[in-house]
Protein backbone atom coordinates (compact mmCIF):
# COMPACT_ATOMS: atom_id res chain seq x y z
CA UNK A 1 0.00 0.00 0.00
CA UNK A 2 2.83 2.38 0.86
CA UNK A 3 4.44 1.67 -2.51
CA UNK A 4 1.17 2.35 -4.33
CA UNK A 5 0.69 5.66 -2.56
CA UNK A 6 4.26 6.60 -3.39
CA UNK A 7 3.66 5.77 -7.08
CA UNK A 8 0.45 7.81 -7.08
CA UNK A 9 2.21 10.87 -5.63
CA UNK A 10 4.99 10.51 -8.18
CA UNK A 11 2.47 10.14 -11.02
CA UNK A 12 0.63 13.29 -9.89
CA UNK A 13 3.90 15.27 -9.87
CA UNK A 14 4.77 14.08 -13.38
CA UNK A 15 1.33 14.98 -14.75
CA UNK A 16 1.50 18.46 -13.19
CA UNK A 17 4.78 18.99 -15.02
CA UNK A 18 3.16 17.97 -18.33
CA UNK A 19 -0.25 19.71 -18.34
CA UNK A 20 -0.65 19.59 -22.13
CA UNK A 21 -0.02 15.83 -22.29
CA UNK A 22 -2.36 15.21 -19.33
CA UNK A 23 -5.11 17.42 -20.76
CA UNK A 24 -5.05 15.77 -24.20
CA UNK A 25 -5.04 12.26 -22.71
CA UNK A 26 -7.81 12.97 -20.19
CA UNK A 27 -10.01 14.77 -22.72
CA UNK A 28 -9.61 11.95 -25.25
CA UNK A 29 -10.55 9.32 -22.67
CA UNK A 30 -13.40 11.44 -21.29
CA UNK A 31 -15.05 11.52 -24.70
CA UNK A 32 -14.69 7.77 -25.22
CA UNK A 33 -15.61 6.66 -21.69
CA UNK A 34 -18.34 9.29 -21.30
CA UNK A 35 -20.10 8.25 -24.51
CA UNK A 36 -20.07 4.61 -23.41
CA UNK A 37 -21.31 5.46 -19.92
CA UNK A 38 -24.15 7.58 -21.35
CA UNK A 39 -25.47 4.86 -23.65
CA UNK A 40 -24.96 2.15 -21.05
CA UNK A 41 -27.00 4.19 -18.55
CA UNK A 42 -29.99 4.17 -20.91
CA UNK A 43 -29.53 0.50 -21.80
CA UNK A 44 -29.36 -0.36 -18.11
CA UNK A 45 -32.59 1.49 -17.30
CA UNK A 46 -34.60 0.26 -20.28
CA UNK A 47 -33.21 -3.21 -20.99
CA UNK A 48 -31.02 -4.67 -18.24
CA UNK A 49 -32.40 -3.48 -14.92
CA UNK A 50 -35.02 -5.74 -13.26
CA UNK A 51 -38.07 -4.31 -11.55
CA UNK A 52 -37.42 -3.24 -7.94
CA UNK A 53 -39.87 -5.83 -6.60
CA UNK A 54 -39.77 -9.13 -4.74
CA UNK A 55 -38.18 -11.94 -6.82
CA UNK A 56 -38.66 -10.24 -10.23
CA UNK A 57 -37.37 -13.36 -12.05
CA UNK A 58 -40.67 -15.12 -11.15
CA UNK A 59 -42.84 -12.56 -12.97
CA UNK A 60 -44.40 -13.30 -16.37
CA UNK A 61 -46.74 -11.47 -18.73
CA UNK A 62 -49.65 -13.17 -20.51
CA UNK A 63 -50.43 -12.36 -24.12
CA UNK A 64 -52.91 -14.03 -26.47
CA UNK A 65 -51.61 -15.03 -29.91
CA UNK A 66 -53.79 -15.33 -32.98
CA UNK A 67 -56.90 -13.65 -34.39
CA UNK A 68 -58.98 -11.91 -31.76
CA UNK A 69 -62.66 -11.11 -32.32
CA UNK A 70 -63.61 -7.78 -30.75
CA UNK A 71 -61.78 -4.61 -29.77
CA UNK A 72 -58.14 -4.38 -28.81
CA UNK A 73 -56.36 -1.46 -27.13
CA UNK A 74 -52.62 -1.67 -26.59
CA UNK A 75 -50.19 -4.57 -26.87
CA UNK A 76 -50.26 -7.72 -24.69
CA UNK A 77 -53.89 -6.99 -23.88
CA UNK A 78 -56.53 -9.42 -22.57
CA UNK A 79 -60.07 -8.85 -21.32
CA UNK A 80 -60.80 -8.40 -17.63
CA UNK A 81 -63.12 -11.48 -17.46
CA UNK A 82 -60.36 -13.57 -19.02
CA UNK A 83 -57.92 -12.29 -16.40
CA UNK A 84 -60.40 -13.23 -13.67
CA UNK A 85 -60.73 -16.77 -15.05
CA UNK A 86 -56.97 -17.24 -15.15
CA UNK A 87 -56.60 -15.74 -11.67
CA UNK A 88 -59.18 -18.04 -10.11
CA UNK A 89 -58.63 -21.30 -12.04
CA UNK A 90 -54.96 -21.57 -13.01
CA UNK A 91 -52.67 -24.20 -11.45
CA UNK A 92 -49.29 -22.66 -12.33
CA UNK A 93 -49.20 -19.22 -10.69
CA UNK A 94 -48.91 -18.24 -7.05
CA UNK A 95 -50.59 -14.91 -7.78
CA UNK A 96 -51.81 -12.65 -10.58
CA UNK A 97 -52.58 -8.97 -11.08
CA UNK A 98 -53.73 -6.77 -13.95
CA UNK A 99 -53.15 -3.14 -14.89
CA UNK A 100 -54.18 -0.57 -17.45
CA UNK A 101 -52.79 2.93 -17.92
CA UNK A 102 -54.68 6.01 -19.07
CA UNK A 103 -54.51 9.78 -18.81
CA UNK A 104 -57.01 11.40 -16.45
CA UNK A 105 -57.95 14.82 -15.14
CA UNK A 106 -57.09 15.19 -11.45
CA UNK A 107 -58.31 18.03 -9.26
CA UNK A 108 -57.14 18.74 -5.73
CA UNK A 109 -57.64 21.90 -3.73
CA UNK A 110 -58.89 23.82 -6.77
CA UNK A 111 -56.01 22.92 -9.05
CA UNK A 112 -56.65 20.63 -12.04
CA UNK A 113 -53.96 18.85 -14.06
CA UNK A 114 -53.57 15.98 -16.50
CA UNK A 115 -51.85 12.98 -14.88
CA UNK A 116 -51.12 9.37 -15.75
CA UNK A 117 -53.34 6.97 -13.84
CA UNK A 118 -52.96 3.22 -13.56
CA UNK A 119 -56.05 1.12 -13.04
CA UNK A 120 -54.87 -1.94 -11.10
CA UNK A 121 -56.34 -5.02 -9.47
CA UNK A 122 -56.38 -5.28 -5.70
CA UNK A 123 -53.55 -7.81 -5.62
CA UNK A 124 -51.24 -5.54 -7.65
CA UNK A 125 -49.10 -4.52 -4.69
CA UNK A 126 -49.21 -7.85 -2.78
CA UNK A 127 -48.11 -9.92 -5.80
CA UNK A 128 -45.26 -7.51 -6.57
CA UNK A 129 -44.28 -7.37 -2.90
CA UNK A 130 -44.40 -3.56 -2.82
CA UNK A 131 -45.31 -1.85 0.44
CA UNK A 132 -46.58 1.61 1.30
CA UNK A 133 -44.58 4.68 2.32
CA UNK A 134 -47.69 6.11 3.98
CA UNK A 135 -51.19 4.79 4.64
CA UNK A 136 -52.02 1.43 3.10
CA UNK A 137 -51.83 -0.25 -0.30
CA UNK A 138 -54.59 -1.99 -2.25
CA UNK A 139 -55.53 -5.55 -1.31
CA UNK A 140 -57.73 -8.25 -2.83
CA UNK A 141 -60.70 -6.80 -0.90
CA UNK A 142 -60.59 -3.78 -3.22
CA UNK A 143 -61.75 -6.05 -6.06
CA UNK A 144 -64.93 -7.30 -4.41
CA UNK A 145 -67.51 -4.77 -5.63
CA UNK A 146 -67.37 -3.04 -9.00
CA UNK A 147 -67.71 0.67 -8.39
CA UNK A 148 -67.64 0.14 -4.64
CA UNK A 149 -64.05 1.18 -3.93
CA UNK A 150 -63.61 4.91 -4.71
CA UNK A 151 -60.05 5.04 -3.38
CA UNK A 152 -56.60 5.91 -4.74
CA UNK A 153 -52.92 5.32 -3.96
CA UNK A 154 -50.43 8.02 -4.91
CA UNK A 155 -46.99 7.27 -6.32
CA UNK A 156 -44.05 8.31 -4.16
CA UNK A 157 -42.72 10.71 -6.84
CA UNK A 158 -46.09 12.44 -7.23
CA UNK A 159 -46.62 12.59 -3.47
CA UNK A 160 -43.30 14.40 -3.06
CA UNK A 161 -43.73 16.70 -6.07
CA UNK A 162 -47.42 17.60 -5.71
CA UNK A 163 -48.04 17.28 -1.96
CA UNK A 164 -44.51 17.92 -0.60
CA UNK A 165 -44.52 14.55 1.16
CA UNK A 166 -47.37 15.55 3.48
CA UNK A 167 -48.50 12.46 5.42
CA UNK A 168 -51.76 14.17 6.29
CA UNK A 169 -52.82 13.75 2.66
CA UNK A 170 -53.96 10.21 3.53
CA UNK A 171 -57.71 10.33 4.03
CA UNK A 172 -58.27 13.42 1.89
CA UNK A 173 -60.13 13.43 -1.40
CA UNK A 174 -59.05 14.05 -4.98
CA UNK A 175 -61.40 14.40 -7.95
CA UNK A 176 -60.52 12.21 -10.93
CA UNK A 177 -62.50 12.84 -14.13
CA UNK A 178 -65.11 14.53 -11.96
CA UNK A 179 -65.38 11.55 -9.58
CA UNK A 180 -64.26 11.93 -5.91
CA UNK A 181 -61.73 9.38 -4.66
CA UNK A 182 -60.21 9.04 -1.19
CA UNK A 183 -56.43 8.80 -0.90
CA UNK A 184 -55.64 5.74 1.22
CA UNK A 185 -51.86 5.53 0.81
CA UNK A 186 -48.61 6.23 -0.99
CA UNK A 187 -46.54 3.53 -2.71
CA UNK A 188 -42.99 3.06 -1.45
CA UNK A 189 -40.02 5.01 -2.73
CA UNK A 190 -38.19 3.61 -5.75
CA UNK A 191 -41.19 1.82 -7.25
CA UNK A 192 -42.52 3.35 -10.48
CA UNK A 193 -44.63 0.49 -11.77
CA UNK A 194 -44.48 -2.35 -14.27
CA UNK A 195 -44.41 -0.07 -17.35
CA UNK A 196 -40.70 0.73 -17.51
CA UNK A 197 -39.93 4.31 -18.44
CA UNK A 198 -43.19 5.78 -17.17
CA UNK A 199 -44.44 6.46 -13.65
CA UNK A 200 -48.19 6.67 -12.97
CA UNK A 201 -48.94 9.46 -10.53
CA UNK A 202 -52.05 7.81 -9.11
CA UNK A 203 -53.35 4.24 -8.95
CA UNK A 204 -57.03 3.40 -8.84
CA UNK A 205 -58.79 0.02 -8.39
CA UNK A 206 -59.61 -1.58 -11.74
CA UNK A 207 -63.13 -2.17 -10.41
CA UNK A 208 -63.71 1.59 -10.75
CA UNK A 209 -62.97 1.47 -14.51
CA UNK A 210 -66.61 1.63 -15.63
CA UNK A 211 -67.62 4.18 -12.99
CA UNK A 212 -65.08 6.90 -13.67
CA UNK A 213 -66.29 9.13 -16.51
CA UNK A 214 -66.11 8.52 -19.40
CA UNK A 215 -66.08 4.82 -18.49
CA UNK A 216 -69.73 4.46 -17.46
CA UNK A 217 -71.42 4.62 -20.88
CA UNK A 218 -68.78 2.31 -22.37
CA UNK A 219 -68.59 -0.66 -19.98
CA UNK A 220 -65.39 -2.64 -20.42
CA UNK A 221 -64.89 -4.73 -17.30
CA UNK A 222 -67.48 -7.40 -18.03
CA UNK A 223 -67.08 -7.47 -21.80
CA UNK A 224 -65.01 -10.42 -23.02
CA UNK A 225 -64.67 -8.80 -26.43
CA UNK A 226 -62.76 -5.79 -25.09
CA UNK A 227 -59.06 -6.42 -24.55
CA UNK A 228 -57.51 -3.49 -22.69
CA UNK A 229 -55.64 -4.74 -19.60
CA UNK A 230 -52.26 -6.44 -19.20
CA UNK A 231 -52.22 -9.55 -17.00
CA UNK A 232 -49.07 -10.31 -15.00
CA UNK A 233 -48.44 -13.39 -12.88
CA UNK A 234 -45.89 -14.84 -10.48
CA UNK A 235 -44.76 -18.41 -11.17
CA UNK A 236 -45.09 -20.98 -8.45
CA UNK A 237 -41.77 -22.17 -6.93
CA UNK A 238 -40.05 -24.57 -9.34
CA UNK A 239 -42.43 -23.71 -12.21
CA UNK A 240 -40.86 -22.85 -15.57
CA UNK A 241 -42.38 -20.63 -18.26
CA UNK A 242 -42.61 -23.58 -20.66
CA UNK A 243 -44.59 -25.66 -18.16
CA UNK A 244 -46.75 -22.68 -17.26
CA UNK A 245 -47.53 -22.03 -20.93
CA UNK A 246 -48.50 -25.67 -21.47
CA UNK A 247 -50.61 -25.64 -18.31
CA UNK A 248 -52.61 -22.59 -19.43
CA UNK A 249 -53.68 -23.88 -22.85
CA UNK A 250 -56.52 -26.21 -21.74
CA UNK A 251 -58.06 -23.49 -19.57
CA UNK A 252 -57.63 -20.90 -22.32
CA UNK A 253 -59.31 -23.07 -24.94
CA UNK A 254 -62.20 -23.74 -22.58
CA UNK A 255 -62.72 -19.97 -22.46
CA UNK A 256 -62.59 -19.71 -26.25
CA UNK A 257 -65.09 -22.56 -26.70
CA UNK A 258 -67.44 -20.84 -24.27
CA UNK A 259 -67.03 -17.38 -25.83
CA UNK A 260 -67.58 -18.49 -29.43
CA UNK A 261 -71.15 -19.50 -28.56
CA UNK A 262 -72.01 -16.09 -27.06
CA UNK A 263 -74.16 -13.40 -28.70
CA UNK A 264 -71.27 -11.26 -30.11
CA UNK A 265 -70.39 -14.17 -32.44
CA UNK A 266 -73.93 -14.42 -33.85
CA UNK A 267 -72.92 -12.67 -37.07
CA UNK A 268 -69.38 -14.01 -37.23
CA UNK A 269 -68.43 -16.16 -40.22
CA UNK A 270 -67.34 -19.75 -39.78
CA UNK A 271 -63.84 -18.72 -40.85
CA UNK A 272 -63.69 -16.02 -38.14
CA UNK A 273 -64.80 -18.55 -35.54
CA UNK A 274 -62.21 -21.10 -36.66
CA UNK A 275 -59.43 -18.54 -36.54
CA UNK A 276 -60.59 -17.39 -33.10
CA UNK A 277 -60.53 -20.96 -31.75
CA UNK A 278 -56.95 -21.40 -32.97
CA UNK A 279 -55.65 -18.72 -30.60
CA UNK A 280 -53.16 -19.73 -27.91
CA UNK A 281 -51.86 -18.10 -24.75
CA UNK A 282 -48.20 -17.14 -24.59
CA UNK A 283 -46.15 -16.51 -21.46
CA UNK A 284 -43.44 -13.84 -21.65
CA UNK A 285 -40.71 -13.05 -19.10
CA UNK A 286 -41.60 -9.92 -17.11
CA UNK A 287 -38.73 -9.59 -14.65
CA UNK A 288 -37.87 -6.27 -16.33
CA UNK A 289 -41.46 -5.18 -16.72
CA UNK A 290 -43.27 -4.17 -19.86
CA UNK A 291 -42.04 -1.21 -21.89
CA UNK A 292 -43.02 0.36 -25.19
CA UNK A 293 -39.87 2.47 -24.97
CA UNK A 294 -37.82 -0.74 -24.82
CA UNK A 295 -39.52 -2.09 -27.93
CA UNK A 296 -38.89 1.16 -29.80
CA UNK A 297 -35.34 1.96 -28.74
CA UNK A 298 -33.54 -1.30 -27.85
CA UNK A 299 -32.06 -1.80 -31.34
CA UNK A 300 -31.02 1.85 -31.78
CA UNK A 301 -29.41 1.81 -28.32
CA UNK A 302 -27.38 -1.32 -29.07
CA UNK A 303 -26.32 0.21 -32.39
CA UNK A 304 -25.22 3.35 -30.56
CA UNK A 305 -23.34 1.20 -28.04
CA UNK A 306 -21.36 -0.36 -30.89
CA UNK A 307 -20.57 3.10 -32.30
CA UNK A 308 -19.40 4.56 -28.99
CA UNK A 309 -17.38 1.38 -28.45
CA UNK A 310 -15.43 2.28 -31.59
CA UNK A 311 -15.00 5.81 -30.25
CA UNK A 312 -13.50 4.36 -27.08
CA UNK A 313 -11.11 2.19 -29.10
CA UNK A 314 -9.93 5.28 -30.95
CA UNK A 315 -9.42 7.09 -27.64
CA UNK A 316 -7.51 4.11 -26.23
CA UNK A 317 -5.29 3.94 -29.31
CA UNK A 318 -4.61 7.63 -28.88
CA UNK A 319 -3.72 7.08 -25.22
CA UNK A 320 -1.30 4.26 -26.09
CA UNK A 321 0.35 6.46 -28.72
CA UNK A 322 0.70 9.32 -26.27
CA UNK A 323 2.25 7.03 -23.66
CA UNK A 324 4.76 5.63 -26.16
CA UNK A 325 5.68 9.14 -27.29
CA UNK A 326 6.03 10.23 -23.66
CA UNK A 327 8.35 7.28 -23.03
CA UNK A 328 10.83 8.71 -25.55
CA UNK A 329 11.28 11.80 -23.37
CA UNK A 330 11.88 9.64 -20.29
CA UNK A 331 14.23 7.07 -21.82
CA UNK A 332 17.30 8.31 -19.97
CA UNK A 333 15.46 8.45 -16.63
CA UNK A 334 14.29 4.84 -17.04
CA UNK A 335 17.73 3.69 -18.22
CA UNK A 336 19.43 5.30 -15.19
CA UNK A 337 16.96 3.66 -12.79
CA UNK A 338 17.51 0.28 -14.43
CA UNK A 339 21.28 0.75 -14.27
CA UNK A 340 21.05 1.58 -10.55
CA UNK A 341 19.31 -1.74 -9.90
CA UNK A 342 15.59 -0.96 -10.16
CA UNK A 343 13.63 -4.01 -11.22
CA UNK A 344 11.80 -3.93 -14.53
CA UNK A 345 8.65 -5.23 -12.87
CA UNK A 346 8.75 -2.35 -10.40
CA UNK A 347 9.06 0.21 -13.19
CA UNK A 348 6.27 -1.38 -15.21
CA UNK A 349 3.99 -1.16 -12.16
CA UNK A 350 4.84 2.50 -11.71
CA UNK A 351 4.13 3.30 -15.36
CA UNK A 352 0.85 1.39 -15.11
CA UNK A 353 -0.11 3.52 -12.12
CA UNK A 354 0.41 6.60 -14.31
CA UNK A 355 -1.77 5.24 -17.12
CA UNK A 356 -4.47 4.07 -14.70
CA UNK A 357 -4.44 7.49 -13.05
CA UNK A 358 -4.96 9.11 -16.45
CA UNK A 359 -7.81 6.75 -17.27
CA UNK A 360 -9.38 7.35 -13.85
CA UNK A 361 -9.32 11.10 -14.43
CA UNK A 362 -10.76 10.52 -17.90
CA UNK A 363 -13.45 8.29 -16.40
CA UNK A 364 -14.42 10.92 -13.82
CA UNK A 365 -14.67 13.58 -16.53
CA UNK A 366 -16.52 11.08 -18.75
CA UNK A 367 -19.11 10.42 -16.02
CA UNK A 368 -19.89 14.13 -15.87
CA UNK A 369 -20.12 14.19 -19.66
CA UNK A 370 -22.44 11.14 -19.58
CA UNK A 371 -24.92 13.00 -17.35
CA UNK A 372 -25.11 15.87 -19.83
CA UNK A 373 -25.33 13.49 -22.81
CA UNK A 374 -28.18 11.47 -21.27
CA UNK A 375 -30.06 14.67 -20.51
CA UNK A 376 -29.80 15.66 -24.18
CA UNK A 377 -30.77 12.17 -25.45
CA UNK A 378 -33.79 11.93 -23.11
CA UNK A 379 -34.86 15.36 -24.35
CA UNK A 380 -35.03 13.94 -27.89
CA UNK A 381 -37.62 11.34 -26.90
CA UNK A 382 -41.16 12.04 -28.15
CA UNK A 383 -43.14 14.39 -25.92
CA UNK A 384 -46.01 12.80 -24.03
CA UNK A 385 -48.53 13.55 -21.32
CA UNK A 386 -47.03 10.60 -19.45
CA UNK A 387 -43.98 11.60 -17.36
CA UNK A 388 -40.78 9.77 -18.24
CA UNK A 389 -38.86 8.22 -15.35
CA UNK A 390 -35.60 7.78 -17.25
CA UNK A 391 -32.89 9.46 -15.22
CA UNK A 392 -29.74 11.17 -16.42
CA UNK A 393 -28.20 10.77 -12.95
CA UNK A 394 -25.96 7.66 -12.86
CA UNK A 395 -26.70 4.92 -10.34
CA UNK A 396 -24.18 2.56 -8.79
CA UNK A 397 -24.38 0.22 -11.79
CA UNK A 398 -23.36 2.98 -14.21
CA UNK A 399 -20.64 4.20 -11.85
CA UNK A 400 -19.30 0.65 -11.55
CA UNK A 401 -19.39 0.23 -15.34
CA UNK A 402 -17.48 3.49 -15.79
CA UNK A 403 -14.90 2.51 -13.16
CA UNK A 404 -14.42 -0.91 -14.78
CA UNK A 405 -14.00 0.58 -18.26
CA UNK A 406 -11.55 3.16 -16.91
CA UNK A 407 -9.48 0.52 -15.11
CA UNK A 408 -9.45 -1.80 -18.12
CA UNK A 409 -8.45 1.08 -20.39
CA UNK A 410 -5.58 2.10 -18.13
CA UNK A 411 -4.24 -1.42 -17.68
CA UNK A 412 -4.70 -2.85 -21.19
CA UNK A 413 -3.60 0.17 -23.17
CA UNK A 414 -0.91 1.21 -20.69
CA UNK A 415 0.74 -2.19 -20.36
CA UNK A 416 2.36 -2.44 -23.81
CA UNK A 417 3.83 1.10 -23.69
CA UNK A 418 5.13 0.31 -20.17
CA UNK A 419 6.78 -2.90 -21.37
CA UNK A 420 8.32 -1.07 -24.32
CA UNK A 421 9.58 1.79 -22.15
CA UNK A 422 11.36 -0.54 -19.72
CA UNK A 423 13.33 -2.29 -22.43
CA UNK A 424 15.89 0.34 -23.49
CA UNK A 425 19.42 -0.25 -24.76
CA UNK A 426 21.22 0.87 -21.66
CA UNK A 427 24.61 1.64 -23.19
CA UNK A 428 23.39 3.83 -26.04
CA UNK A 429 20.72 5.50 -23.90
CA UNK A 430 23.16 6.41 -21.12
CA UNK A 431 25.48 7.90 -23.76
CA UNK A 432 22.61 10.27 -24.74
CA UNK A 433 21.99 8.60 -28.08
CA UNK A 434 18.37 9.59 -28.67
CA UNK A 435 15.96 7.11 -30.20
CA UNK A 436 17.42 4.05 -28.48
CA UNK A 437 14.09 3.35 -26.84
CA UNK A 438 11.72 4.27 -29.59
CA UNK A 439 13.26 2.29 -32.41
CA UNK A 440 12.39 -1.18 -33.63
CA UNK A 441 9.18 -2.65 -32.27
CA UNK A 442 8.17 0.65 -30.63
CA UNK A 443 8.06 2.37 -34.01
CA UNK A 444 6.10 -0.51 -35.51
CA UNK A 445 3.64 -0.38 -32.60
CA UNK A 446 3.11 3.36 -32.96
CA UNK A 447 2.55 3.07 -36.68
CA UNK A 448 0.08 0.22 -36.10
CA UNK A 449 -1.84 2.31 -33.59
CA UNK A 450 -2.00 5.22 -36.02
CA UNK A 451 -3.30 2.90 -38.75
CA UNK A 452 -5.91 1.53 -36.32
CA UNK A 453 -7.04 5.05 -35.37
CA UNK A 454 -7.37 6.11 -39.00
CA UNK A 455 -9.24 2.90 -39.92
CA UNK A 456 -11.69 3.19 -37.02
CA UNK A 457 -12.22 6.90 -37.67
CA UNK A 458 -12.90 6.19 -41.35
CA UNK A 459 -15.38 3.48 -40.36
CA UNK A 460 -17.19 5.91 -38.06
CA UNK A 461 -17.24 8.62 -40.72
CA UNK A 462 -18.72 6.22 -43.28
CA UNK A 463 -21.31 5.06 -40.76
CA UNK A 464 -22.18 8.67 -39.86
CA UNK A 465 -22.55 9.50 -43.55
CA UNK A 466 -24.90 6.57 -44.11
CA UNK A 467 -26.87 7.52 -40.99
CA UNK A 468 -27.32 11.11 -42.19
CA UNK A 469 -28.34 9.81 -45.63
CA UNK A 470 -30.93 7.51 -43.99
CA UNK A 471 -32.33 10.41 -41.95
CA UNK A 472 -32.62 12.47 -45.13
CA UNK A 473 -34.50 9.61 -46.81
CA UNK A 474 -36.86 9.34 -43.83
CA UNK A 475 -37.55 13.06 -43.94
CA UNK A 476 -38.39 12.82 -47.63
CA UNK A 477 -40.49 9.65 -47.26
CA UNK A 478 -44.08 10.04 -48.37
CA UNK A 479 -46.31 8.93 -45.44
CA UNK A 480 -49.35 8.68 -47.72
CA UNK A 481 -50.91 12.05 -46.89
CA UNK A 482 -50.06 15.73 -47.28
CA UNK A 483 -47.78 16.90 -44.45
CA UNK A 484 -47.23 20.50 -45.49
CA UNK A 485 -48.84 23.02 -43.08
CA UNK A 486 -50.37 20.14 -41.10
CA UNK A 487 -51.11 20.77 -37.41
CA UNK A 488 -52.31 18.10 -34.98
CA UNK A 489 -53.55 18.39 -31.40
CA UNK A 490 -55.60 16.33 -28.95
CA UNK A 491 -58.66 17.21 -26.89
CA UNK A 492 -60.65 15.02 -24.49
CA UNK A 493 -63.88 16.73 -23.38
CA UNK A 494 -65.03 13.66 -21.44
CA UNK A 495 -62.32 14.40 -18.85
CA UNK A 496 -64.21 17.62 -18.07
CA UNK A 497 -67.41 15.71 -17.30
CA UNK A 498 -68.82 15.85 -20.84
CA UNK A 499 -71.06 12.85 -21.40
CA UNK A 500 -70.65 10.96 -24.72
CA UNK A 501 -73.57 12.81 -26.30
CA UNK A 502 -72.16 16.24 -25.38
CA UNK A 503 -68.67 15.10 -26.42
CA UNK A 504 -69.91 14.07 -29.87
CA UNK A 505 -71.62 17.42 -30.30
CA UNK A 506 -68.48 19.17 -29.06
CA UNK A 507 -66.36 17.42 -31.71
CA UNK A 508 -68.89 18.32 -34.40
CA UNK A 509 -68.92 22.00 -33.45
CA UNK A 510 -65.12 22.03 -33.06
CA UNK A 511 -64.67 20.69 -36.59
CA UNK A 512 -67.12 23.22 -38.04
CA UNK A 513 -65.50 26.14 -36.24
CA UNK A 514 -61.98 25.08 -37.20
CA UNK A 515 -62.96 25.07 -40.86
CA UNK A 516 -64.04 28.71 -40.56
CA UNK A 517 -60.77 29.90 -39.02
CA UNK A 518 -58.83 32.15 -41.45
CA UNK A 519 -55.97 30.21 -43.03
CA UNK A 520 -57.51 26.77 -42.34
CA UNK A 521 -58.40 24.93 -45.55
CA UNK A 522 -59.76 21.75 -43.94
CA UNK A 523 -60.12 19.98 -40.59
CA UNK A 524 -60.71 16.35 -39.63
CA UNK A 525 -60.88 14.08 -36.59
CA UNK A 526 -59.19 10.74 -35.83
CA UNK A 527 -59.64 8.32 -32.96
CA UNK A 528 -55.95 7.39 -33.02
CA UNK A 529 -53.32 10.04 -33.86
CA UNK A 530 -51.36 9.49 -37.06
CA UNK A 531 -47.98 7.71 -36.93
CA UNK A 532 -47.87 7.45 -33.13
CA UNK A 533 -47.28 3.70 -32.95
CA UNK A 534 -50.45 3.07 -30.90
CA UNK A 535 -52.31 -0.20 -31.34
CA UNK A 536 -56.10 -0.19 -31.62
CA UNK A 537 -58.51 -2.36 -33.54
CA UNK A 538 -62.21 -3.18 -33.67
CA UNK A 539 -63.28 -6.52 -35.14
CA UNK A 540 -66.62 -8.24 -35.16
CA UNK A 541 -69.83 -7.17 -33.46
CA UNK A 542 -68.98 -5.73 -30.02
Give a written overview of the molecule.
With 542 residues, the chain is α+β, with helices and mostly antiparallel strands. The protein has 3 domains: 2-49 and 292-476, no CATH class; 56-285, no CATH class; 493-532, no CATH class. It contains 14 helices and 13 strands. A 6-stranded mixed beta barrel has the order 3-4-9-6-8-7. A 3-stranded mixed β-sheet has the order 10-2-13, with no helix packed on it. Strand 7 (173-176) and strand 8 form a beta hairpin. The longest helix has 38 residues, at 292-329. The protein is elongated and about 95 Å long.
The number of distinct structural domains comes to: 3
Biggest β-sheet: strands ordered side by side in the sheet: 3-4-9-6-8-7
Summarize model confidence as the mean pLDDT: 83
Q: What's the count of strands? A: 13
Rg calculated over all Cα atoms: 31 Å
Return the string of H and E elements.
HHEEHEEHEEHEEEEEHHEHHHHHHHE
Roughly what fraction of the amino acids lie in strands?
5-15%
User: Distance N terminus to C terminus?
Assistant: 75 Å
Number of helices: 14
- Global geometry: elongated
Structural class: alpha+beta
Tell me roughly what share of residues is in helical segments: 40-55%
Uncertain regions spanning at least 5 consecutive residues? 433-438
Instruction: Report the biggest beta sheet as strand number plus sense, adding barrel if it closes.
Output: 6 strands, mixed, barrel
Amino acid sequence: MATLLQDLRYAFRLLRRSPLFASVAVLSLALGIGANAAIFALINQLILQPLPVKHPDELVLLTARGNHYGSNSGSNAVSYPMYQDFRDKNQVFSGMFCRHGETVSLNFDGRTEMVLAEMVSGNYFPVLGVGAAAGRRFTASDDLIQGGHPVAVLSYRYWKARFAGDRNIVGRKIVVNGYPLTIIGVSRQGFDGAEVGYSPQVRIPITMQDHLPPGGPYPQLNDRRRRFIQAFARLKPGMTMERAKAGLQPLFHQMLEMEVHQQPFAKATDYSKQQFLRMWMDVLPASKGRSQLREQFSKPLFALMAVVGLVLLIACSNLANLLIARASSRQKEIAVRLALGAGRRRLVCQLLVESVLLSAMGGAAGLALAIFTDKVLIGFLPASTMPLTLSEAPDWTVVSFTALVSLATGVIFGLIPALQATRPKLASTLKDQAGAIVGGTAVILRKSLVVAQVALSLLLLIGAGLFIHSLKNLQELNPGFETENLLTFAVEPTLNEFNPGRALEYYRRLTEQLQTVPGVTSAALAVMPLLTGNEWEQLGNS
